[in-house]
């Protein structure tokens, strides 16, 4: 690793983790060699972190227009045996991408979901893996990961490109969300062709996510309690998900596409789980009430599903990471209480076992995620929901209890996520 650009410090945890309530084990950290300025100026933040689809690269938006492409796992990091070793990636080297402006969004492509791979989604004309970077002036730069070379720029957005996501069909279709209030859909195999523009947001687009069956886009925008759903097939608006008075900041589809998680806050924070097919609000996860009284302004920054769809990760102002297992009373793991260097983003390794978080002071931290074997119920539900929608499930001649399980309606409608200090 280039010592002039960043350093990594690692620690390991060999303790056996309990079912819930453990302190998150930190296994590594990346730090910029230059400390952030103390005069309040922005620029050093890590706004986005991403793993490549095969898990062999990690992209770090390390502030001041620089993106580091690092070979994963890092040389001095102790990981579980089921994560591929450094020797597997001989010949690959870390790369520095100078984007010239603040990088707000990162996305590797092409990506595939289990749905796309099973149903024979479109195949690539080239196996090249690319990295898209969204910049402050609205430009999207497309880089070739293997060489670190710039392939081309995408122009059209008129302000900050806040979020990027590749459609998980094995192709090079990119969705971008911007402060210019639009979503844009790009075909990177034909960058000079007309771009599809989705309009209707009332403010900056904060976050967007694409369903695993490639049929829907979810998006949230600044200061708006509504979640927008768009058709990726007809490029039209579908519906708003309503019933939340708080401002939405993040969204993510579950790996089977049956759930949509959204994060919102207004002084305190909460996460909602929705059925994207029917628009029904399924259940709500709220901040610990006692923390709410102690910390008057505690925004949530990001929410992400784990690769197997069993866990949700949250980034909030008071803690760098929380991970919750669906239906549990307490967080599975959480970091210590913090009131500085708050987290801004997170991403799971595609093989599981590790989550990366980016912070306001430009750091990246890697946390070990406990490997919990999903129940047979969860595995069967996910296998079925990859293939059929909620409406199709409801048309099946099956008992109502089984139907509730398959549509995620077997959970309570409300959970309070009590922290370790207030249980």
UniProtKB/TrEMBL annotation:
Q: Name one GO biological process term.
A: protein polyubiquitination
Keyword annotations for this protein, in alphabetical order, are:
Repeat, Ubl conjugation pathway, WD repeat
Its name, as the record gives it, is SOCS box domain-containing protein
PROSITE patterns registered for this protein in UniProt? SOCS, WD_REPEATS_1, WD_REPEATS_2, WD_REPEATS_REGION
Pathway info: Protein modification; protein ubiquitination
Q: Where are the WD repeats?
A: 131-153, 154-188, 293-334, 348-369
Q: Which residues cross the membrane?
A: none
Q: Name one Pfam family in it.
A: SOCS_box
């Amino acid at each position: 690793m280039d010592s002039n650009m960043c350093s990594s410090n690692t620690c390991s945890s060999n303790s056996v983790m309990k079912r819930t309530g453990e302190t998150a084990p930190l296994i590594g950290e990346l730090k910029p060699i230059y400390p952030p300025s103390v005069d309040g100026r922005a620029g050093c933040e890590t706004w986005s972190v991403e793993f490549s689809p095969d898990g062999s690269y990690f992209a770090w938006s390390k502030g001041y227009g620089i993106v580091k492409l690092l070979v994963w796992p890092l040389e001095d990091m102790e990981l579980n045996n089921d994560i591929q070793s450094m020797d597997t990636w001989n010949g690959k080297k870390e790369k520095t991408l100078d984007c010239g402006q603040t990088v707000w969004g990162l996305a590797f492509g092409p990506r595939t979901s289990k749905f796309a791979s099973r149903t024979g989604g479109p195949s690539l004309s080239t196996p090249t893996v690319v990295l898209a970077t969204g910049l402050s002036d609205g430009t999207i730069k497309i880089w070739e990961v293997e060489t670190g070379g710039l392939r081309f720029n995408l122009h059209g957005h008129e302000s900050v490109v806040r979020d990027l996501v590749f459609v998980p069909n094995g192709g090079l279709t990119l969705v971008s969300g911007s402060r210019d209030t639009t979503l844009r859909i790009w075909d990177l195999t034909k960058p000079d062709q007309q771009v599809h523009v989705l309009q209707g947001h009332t403010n900056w687009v904060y976050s967007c996510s694409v369903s695993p069956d490639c049929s829907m886009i979810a998006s949230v925008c600044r200061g708006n309690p509504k979640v927008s759903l768009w058709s990726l097939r007809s490029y039209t608006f579908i519906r708003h998900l309503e019933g939340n008075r708080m401002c939405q900041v993040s969204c993510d589809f579950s790996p089977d596409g049956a759930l949509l998680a959204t994060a919102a806050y207004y002084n305190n924070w909460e996460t909602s789980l929705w059925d994207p097919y029917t628009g029904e609000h399924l259940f709500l996860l709220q901040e610990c009430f006692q923390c709410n009284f102690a910390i008057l302004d505690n925004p949530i920054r990001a929410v992400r599903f784990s690769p197997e769809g069993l866990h949700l990760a949250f980034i909030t102002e008071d803690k760098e990471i929380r991970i919750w297992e669906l239906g549990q009373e307490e967080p599975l793991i959480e970091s210590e209480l913090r009131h500085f260097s708050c987290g801004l983003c997170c991403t799971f390794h595609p093989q599981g076992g590790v989550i990366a978080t980016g912070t306001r002071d430009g750091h990246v931290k890697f946390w070990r995620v406990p490997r919990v074997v999903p129940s047979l119920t969860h595995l069967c539900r996910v296998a079925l929901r990859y293939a059929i929608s909620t409406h199709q499930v409801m048309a099946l001649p099956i008992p109502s209890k089984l139907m509730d399980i398959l549509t995620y309606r077997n959970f309570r409608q409300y959970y309070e996520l009590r922290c370790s200090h207030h249980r």
